[in-house]
Write a structure and sequence with these properties.
By secondary structure, the chain is mainly α. It has one domain (21-247). It is 77% helix and 0% strand. Helix 3 (56-87) packs across helix 9. The protein is globular. 32% of the residues are buried.
């Protein structure tokens, strides 16, 4: 039987921990996004980066929102678990009357609340720099949820298997950051040479960012085939992480 009380307790603790560290968890990513907007808006005045449909800043801001949510969704669970292992408090989870899968589910639920909160805060602040006549709240939340589930699964997996900050930093620097920067966050795919476009056409995260960006400005046709593949990909990684938690590989060093 699922221990709902334990899951709720972990979720409550993690959200409280998130709000207590607001200067790191909320203000820092918001400040980074504002700096990106200020810098690129200044560059846009001199080099005309805008295209015929929307300005470059309008193109950039949705990518910045989803990028910061992805980064925080990875960092929060991985940092929390590794820190708990180092101070010994993770053992309290293991001896408590709840399964390791329930621990993962609790981290995921709490991160969904945290990720949506970060996205809404950034959206409200950065909306000052853009204007739009169309906005799909369903697509906005749906693609955010896909990003949160995927990157929280990666962060939880790293947090479960790793014992050193070097491992967490390595995954963040050599996988999370590149996939965020090189998936159409800062530039449209049409600006790339033809031989490089294939990388983006087979990158599921590129389509997530594209559909998320479209939720701000246009009512685009959703490709059911691509979205089904994206959902299967994210759900498969979620199941893989849940399986690793269930097996408990290297939980105790």
């Amino acid at each position: 039987m699922i221990n709902l009380i334990a899951i709720f307790t972990i979720v409550k603790f993690r959200i409280k921990e998130f709000t207590n560290e607001y200067h790191y968890s909320i203000l820092a990513p918001l400040t980074s996004n504002l700096l990106f907007v200020i810098i690129f808006s200044t560059i846009d005045r001199f080099y005309s980066l805008s295209n015929d449909n929307i300005s470059f800043i309008e193109f950039l801001i949705p990518g910045l929102i989803i990028m910061v949510v992805a980064q925080e969704s990875f960092d929060n669970p991985s940092v929390s678990m590794i820190n708990s292992k180092q101070i010994g408090s993770f053992d309290d989870f293991l001896v408590a009357p709840l399964s390791r899968v329930e621990i993962f589910v609790a981290y995921l639920i709490s991160q969904i609340f945290i990720g949506l909160f970060i996205a809404i805060i950034n959206f409200l602040i950065l909306s000052y720099f853009i204007s739009y006549n169309y906005f799909s709240i369903f697509n906005f939340i749906y693609y955010l949820l896909l990003v949160i589930i995927f990157f929280t699964s990666i962060g939880s997996l790293v947090g479960l298997l790793a014992y050193r900050w070097d491992t967490q930093s390595t995954v963040s620097n050599f996988f999370i950051s590149p996939i965020n920067f090189l998936s159409g966050t800062f530039f449209p795919i049409n600006a790339l040479p033809e031989d490089i476009k294939y990388f983006f056409l087979y990158n599921p995260y590129y389509y997530v960012i594209t559909y998320f960006r479209n939720s701000f400005y246009i009512k685009s046709d959703v490709n059911l085939y691509i979205n089904t593949l994206i959902f299967i990909f994210v759900f498969s990684f979620f199941l893989f992480t849940a399986y690793v938690f269930y097996r408990g590989y290297r939980v105790v060093k």
